[in-house]
Design brief:
The complex is a heterodimer of chains A (about 300) and B (about 130).
Chain A lengths: L4 E11 L2 H11 L3 E5 L5 E4 L9 E5 L4 E9 L2 H14 L3 E4 L10 E5 L5 E5 L29 E9 L2 H11 L3 E7 L5 E7 L7 E5 L5 E8 L3 H13 L4 E7 L6 E6 L5 E6 L11 E4 L3 H5 L8 H5 L3
Parallel strand pairs in A: 1-4, 5-8, 9-12, 10-17, 13-16
Antiparallel strand pairs in A: 1-5, 2-3, 3-4, 6-7, 7-8, 9-13, 10-11, 11-12, 14-15, 15-16
Chain B lengths: L1 H5 L5 H15 L12 E6 L4 E6 L4 H7 L18 E6 L2 E3 L9 H5 L2 E3 L3 E3 L3 E5 L3
Parallel strand pairs in B: 1-7
Antiparallel strand pairs in B: 1-2, 3-5, 3-7, 4-6
Chain lengths: ~300, ~130
């Protein structure tokens, strides 16, 4: 049941070196650098995104993810969900307006998998970058690198993904679009959506809490994914795997790492989900094909390397 | 560049011989465009493996370029901790590494992530992960 959560709105990623991080997120992925705040955090967005920012980079001595934020319909929804998060048993914290430049009041909460999430209703809307709001052209001419269009989703690792599913379904109104189930019926992976995408966030069962597997950015076409692969080689960027296709969600994809070891994905296409659709299931004995549809072989690094 | 490519197909002994050729070829008087690079011998003692690494190259990349896989390769960015080694002897410098994987105490005791270690001499190292 929809609860008024609209979409993933932002992710704050920790990096070891801001200059190198900007070479990755701005110059290689092609995100637009939009602001820097008094803490030195740098704000970026994909060029098609209407809101001011979707990626925040924070200098830290260990990489990983600080939090992911979801935008909700309005302040009434925010208040309603705030109370429901408390009732669910989350540790809930209010972050005042302006703590992130251009972002309204945020309600931050933890999850059983050990990740921090937040919801918010207001963020400054600066429009698509480089094109007009009225009579807009198809795309701006001066994009860099892979020309990523938006922050799309992230895959997170942690314990008790069943508990986090409960939170995301019951309180936030996400659906489970796809899952991987082992031979004992235990769900080892879950792909959750709050709209029609195959995933807005995904979780894999893992003993360490709060881990980031990857942050993902959308491209338009398979040709763009291949071009991204060319850029990864040209720039001698640390590659993980791809270009290939996933069985899960059927997205066409490539994975690589930023200079702090955080994994990035750029991908295109894939399945869609409506609330009345049954959950797509992959069985763990076909996990190789579920993850890498062409190789059909599991890759130790892809499964275990996290920040 | 051709010679470096050939390393993939030979064992360590042959690699040493070819490396000598590579160093010779790299000398400026040969007139090539390649610069002279000091290559250091990196021995992974508990894996019985040796590879060679240039001053401006981190250990993990040096290892990968010679198609040796005695250290697991993760993010190559100092973030995931998969390539954590201990330097037993030898001079080296490190680029920044995740404190989640190399604490200050460990850094003092010569633990490092191979993807962030620049050799400044021949090194003896060990790698414990499976």
């Amino acid at each position: 049941m929809k609860k008024g959560v609209m979409r993933p709105g932002h992710i704050q990623i920790r990096v070891l070196d801001m200059k190198e991080a900007l070479e990755h997120y701005r110059d290689l992925l092609g995100l637009i650098e939009v602001d820097t705040d008094s803490q030195g955090r740098v704000y970026l967005k994909g060029w098609t995104e209407i809101d001011k920012f979707s990626v925040v980079l924070r200098l830290a001595d260990e990489p990983g993810m600080d939090f992911v934020g979801y935008k909700v319909l309005n302040n009434e929804t925010l208040e309603q969900l705030h109370q429901e998060l408390i009732d669910f048993g989350c540790n809930v914290e209010e972050i005042p307006t302006g703590e992130l430049n251009g972002c309204g009041r945020r309600i931050r909460f933890d999850s059983p998998t050990g990740h921090m999430f937040e919801i918010y209703a207001e963020k400054e809307q600066t429009g698509k970058w480089g094109i007009a709001d009225v009579n807009p052209e198809a795309w701006p001419r001066n994009l860099k690198g892979m020309k990523a269009t938006r922050f799309d989703h992230c895959l997170l690792y942690g314990p008790n993904i069943a508990g986090t599913l409960d939170l995301f379904q019951k309180v936030l109104g996400f659906d489970i679009a796809e899952q991987v189930v082992d031979d004992k019926g235990f769900r080892v992976a879950q792909f959750l959506t709050v709209g029609q995408k195959a995933h807005d966030v995904a979780f894999i069962e893992h003993p360490e809490p709060g881990k980031l597997h990857h942050a993902s950015f959308l491209l338009d076409t398979w040709e763009d994914v291949l071009r991204a692969a060319d850029l990864i080689s040209m720039e001698d960027v640390s590659i993980d795997i791809g270009p290939t296709r996933h069985g899960l969600t059927h997205g066409k994809t490539i994975y690589f790492f930023d200079k702090s070891g955080n994994r990035s994905e750029v991908f295109c296409c894939g399945d869609y989900h409506y609330p009345d659709h049954p959950t797509v299931t992959w069985t763990a004995d076909q996990l190789g094909k579920a993850i890498f549809y062409h190789d059909r072989v599991l890759n130790e690094r892809f499964l275990t390397v996290l920040t | 560049m051709v010679i470096l490519f050939l390393f993939d197909f030979f064992d360590t002994g042959t690699t040493v011989a070819l490396m000598t050729v590579a160093i010779t070829l790299n000398k400026p008087e040969w007139g090539g465009s390649m610069t002279t690079k000091q290559l250091h011998r990196i021995e992974v003692v508990n894996r019985n493996q040796v590879f060679y690494c240039a001053e401006d190259q981190v250990l993990l990349i040096g290892m990968e370029r010679q198609n040796i896989n005695c250290i697991n390769v993760g993010c190559r960015g100092g973030g995931c901790g998969v390539c954590k080694v201990r330097i037993i002897t030898g001079e080296y410098e490190t680029k920044c590494m995740s404190r989640a994987h190399i604490s200050e105490a460990e850094e003092k005791h010569n633990y490092a992530l191979a993807c962030r270690v620049l050799p400044r001499g021949d090194l003896l190292i060990e790698y414990d992960k499976q």
